[in-house]
Amino acid sequence: MGATDRLSSISVNLGDREVITVTQDVVQLDDFYVMRIHTEGKGEVRGEIIRLSEDPKHPATHLFDSPIYEDVQGLKEWAVLALQAYREG
Asked: In this predicted model, what pLDDT tens digit does every residue of 17-32 receive, in sequence order?
């Protein structure tokens, strides 16, 4: 998995109102943790920190969500610090 791999882009049509497009990327934080990035229509991003499973029979584990950020770089920086704090307990 590269630094960022595009997963999917989903568009939702709300009838006469608007179309919302949600794009998801995955950023590998280290060998065991990734962050799924959710980019929403207004250019805001939020993340979901996930612990990968070593056993393919078991799914990955959602650990926590990030606050909303205006850009991906700020979100990545927050994720690295949040993961460090999580590990240190």
From this structure: 555 555 568 888 988 9
pTM of the predicted model, to two decimals? 0.70
Say how many C-beta atoms besides its own lie within 10 A of residue 59's C-beta: 10
Give the Cα separation of 42 and 49 in Å (integer): 22
- The C-alpha angle 61, 64, 69, rounded to 5 degrees, equals 135
Contact 72, 37 (CB under 8 A): yes
3-state helix/strand/coil string of the chain: CCCEEEEEEEEEECCCCCEEEEEEEEEECCCCEEEEEEECCCCCEEEEEEECCCCCCCCCEEEEECCCECCHHHHHHHHHHHHHHHHHC
